[in-house]
Amino acid sequence: MAASLILFYALLFLVAFLYASVGHGGASGYLALMAVFGIAPEVMKPTALLLNLFVSLVAFIQFYRGNHFKARLFWPFALASIPASFLGGRMTVDGTSYKRILGAFLFIPVIRFFFFPNIKVNEIKESNIYLSLLIGGAIGLLSGMIGIGGGVILSPVLLLLKWTNQKQAAAISALFIFVNSLAGLAGQLTKGIHFTADMYLYVIVAFAGGLAGAYLGALRFSHNVIKYLLATVLAIAAYKLLFTGA
Fold first, then answer.
1. Among 67, 36, 56, 14, which Cα is nearest to 226's?
2. What is the CA angle 195-30-185, rounded to 5?
3. What is the pLDDT of residues 149-164, one digit of tens each?
4. Are 210 and 26 in contact, with CB atoms under 8 Å apart?
């Protein structure tokens, strides 16, 4: 196995590990890795969504077992995001535009990890169902269009609005990512999707990283240094996509 391929799988494991530890599926990280390693855009979207299914599900199970899931908060987001994500998955974006949109989007987790690594909520406020529907629909459409689950956006929104604490946000985001990824894949299936021949290895490595990360994340594992390293990788990928024509 070539050194570059070993590096890819090592980074894939690390991305799944870190994202699952905070209740995320890791699509933005997978997309960044695939962009850096030159994988075609038509393969990137369905691959990221499929990996999201496995990693977000195992993350949700761990946080659910820790009694952090709040179904009442989850359903309004999901009801709006599922059809929107399906529509987003049906949208066709040319390769150049897709890379530019993805490059801009990657700065969101960079800002999240660098400047808001641990958002503390001291007082939980009552959620607003109409605002939840609006946020869910907007995130769902973007999720399906570029091949993410949307948890990296929803999680900080929940915390900034003070509707949940960090563990509750992780549990809600994990299931939100799962249903969005499923809907986005369903939308792409109507047009036809493409996977790499090594897809089964991608799934095995990501699942292993997600399982370890979700387990340790539920036990309050500290990983701020790794967060900063991942944010640096995402920033490099964003620059590559936006300014080098990669």
1. 14
2. 50
3. 888 788 878 888 889 8
4. yes
